[in-house]
Amino acid sequence: MTDPWVALEPGADPAERVRILRRAHETFTTVGAVPRPVRSVVAESWRRSARAGVVPDGTASVELSDGDLGAYRAEHPLARVMPLFRELMGTFAADDEQLLAVCDAQGRLLWVEGHPAARRRADGMNFVPGARWSEAAVGTNAPGTAVTLDRPVQVFAAEHFTRRVQPWTCVAAPVHDPRTGRVLGAVDVTGGDGLAHPHSLGFVQAVARAAEAQLALLAPARPAADTPSLVALGRDEAELAHGGRRIRLSRRHSEIVLLLSRHPEGLTGDELLCALYADESVTPVTLRAELARLRRLLGPELLSSRPYRLTTVVDADATVVERRLGSGALTAAAEVYAGPLLPGSQAPAIVRLRERLARELRAALIAHRDPDLLADWAHAPWGEDDIEVWRALAAVRPSASVRARLAALEAELAAPSARAGARIGGATYLQRPPV
């Protein structure tokens, strides 16, 4: 196959491919091996699904209903582009007995619209508004895998991890906030085998890009003197928005800008050395070279020296989370938290900040006992092995899928030869052995 993101190569027999995939799926769920010709994107998703405790005969859980669903949808950014989705995709879905679906960044379906017969069939697998279709909840599927990978995905028939979804084919693409680049959710078309075509993948991606362009037009203009912002949560390389520019920073520059944003009074070279390098053999010359490159990138009007400091306030997303937590706005804090702070960084000061922020947020979530907020954390990549959060979630939402996942984690915790428990930031996670 020339394009690994396309489910069927030209001329392939869909029925024969379904038979092959079903045998491959049975082999994987029985012995854990993925035989050819399963696409790599699907094989990797199956492995993630199995690690998350998804069972092939499971189904999605409905987490939002009635008034809660309506209120959540009304406030969600993608509500502003639903008219565009319906205009571009609604007739297409209705005419071909397909479904238009839109999910949030956690894989919860917000809207499911389309042909009445298709909707009735989809109801049988809980492909309904308010249900969580994240990859960690129901396994490989286009909307859930699209937000996991942050790229357009096509999932054909028995490539789905959950068996009751295997009669369907779906195509989804993530939609991003045009100002921050964060994933807001995904737009999806679900239907029959005819969707396993390169054109459907390009079509859904084009719709997602159109939605992002529409969101950019609807966003209020930012004044030129607006406070610079730094996005560093859930990404190894931060992005700085300043003076109409969006600057992608290297990992080291990300660490420096983040630390300086938290110290408006500035830091000396020695203080930065201690904050950035665990290796005491690193010399001041190395740091000065990094700062010289950063000054050329940002300009001397933003970065000054003696001490090193930013000449204006930079509002980092990690600081926003701390500020909202401090004021008791837990839901608002959780919305900003897009993942661990610069997760690949080993700078001592960043590690401490990353662990403290995660520890304080998850402690607040556990204490607050809101099932939706706990589920968002538990189903996120950074929370899939957080046994204490899964215990808290099971206490307030004891669904079959939650109980099954918790039981799997408890069993693994009780088997130290398979996996050892690790304490990170005050939380109990399960540490997998090297593969």
Could you please describe the fold and organization of this structure?
This is GAF domain-containing protein. One of its GO terms (molecular function) is DNA binding. Residues 244-310 form the OmpR/PhoB-type domain. By secondary structure, the protein is an alpha+beta fold. The protein folds into three domains: 14-218, Beta-Lactamase, CATH 3.30.450.40; 229-316, Arc Repressor Mutant, subunit A (Orthogonal Bundle), CATH 1.10.10.10; 328-431, no CATH class. 46% of the residues lie in helices and 14% in strands. It contains 17 helices and 13 strands. It has helices at residues 14-31, 40-51, 66-75, 82-95, 116-123, 135-138, 142-149, 198-218, 251-261, 269-276, 284-298, 317-326, 330-336, 348-368, 371-379, 387-396, 400-413, and strands spanning 99-104, 109-114, 153-156, 169-176, 183-191, 229-231, 239-242, 245-248, 303-304, 309-310, 315-316, 420-424, 427-431. It has a five-stranded antiparallel sheet with strand order 2-1-5-4-3, sandwiched between helices. A four-stranded mixed sheet has the order 8-7-6-11. A hairpin with a 2-residue loop joins strand 12 and strand 13 (427-431). The longest helix has 21 residues, at 198-218. The protein is globular, with a radius of gyration of 23 Å. The relative contact order is 0.09. The mean pLDDT is 89.
* Count of individual domains: 3
- CATH fold naming of the largest domain: Beta-Lactamase
Q: C-alpha Rg, in Å?
A: 23 Å
Helix and strand sequence: HHHHEEHHHEEEHEEEHHHEEEHHHHHHEE
Give unreliable regions as ranges.
none
Q: What is the strand tally? A: 13
Strand content: 5-15%
Largest sheet: 5 strands, antiparallel
Organism: Streptomyces misionensis
Protein name: GAF domain-containing protein
InterPro entries: GAF, GAF-like_dom_sf, OmpR/PhoB-type_DNA-bd
GO molecular function: DNA binding
